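> @MW can you paste both from yesterday?
MW: sure, first one:
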Amino acid sequence: MQVVLATHNAHKVVELRQILGDGLGGIELVAYRGPEPVEDGETFAANALIKARAAFESTGLTSIADDSGISVDVLDGAPGIHSARYSGTRDDAVNVTLLLRNLVDATNRAAHFTCAAALVDADGEHVETRTWVGSILAEPVGVGGFGYDPIFKPNGFSVSAGELRAEEKNQFSHRAQAFRALLPVLRARVNLAL
């Protein structure tokens, strides 16, 4: 049974296969090749649904998608849903630099990643949202992960998300939590035994 992961990012397909592993059973995750929708929702859940709906409408296959970002308490939750384009570009390094500049005098550096994982098929829509709580470091540390990982130190860890091995990150991250919560719904929808 093929399920479309509504992303043009091949890295995300690989990462999600690693996160869900044997839980996928007979589900084959395939990348979405159709047009990218305009993500103009006001929440992570709304944007995840926009992507999943577009993939379902284009392919007719059960489709899943996610939207995620980082929210910083002292910045009233910014960059939030605008994380990928926080600096006006999609350049991770420029986004990270801007965020650190905006926090240069901040003593409260509490932050969290949020991921909304959405499923759309002929039977309807379902969304699971999870967070990964931590704080923002003064400078990037580590070369793993992507996006804001090198400046995010998850609570309970002594290193940044950029220093975690992929297996560690895939056990605890917001994306891992959200898609693991979505997995039983996905399996039920494609009529696989739980």
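MW: second:
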Amino acid sequence: MTAGKYEDSARYVFRVRGILNPDWATWFPGFAVTRDSAGHTVLCGEVIDRAALYGILARACDLGLTIISVERQGDES
């Protein structure tokens, strides 16, 4: 990825503090909601562009979720 340029869609993994009911997936269309071994919730799905990424982060914030990590999968860096 070159500086200042955002590549096309990519798969992202978001970890949030605590266990969310899988019904929360309706707040994150296209994302799978699972748990990790540390007792946190993992949201996995395709993000089509930067605006969509910011939208997901804003929604998590609006819902009062504590974001532990965000990982873009498939990066070679």
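> thanks! The chain has one domain: 10-72.
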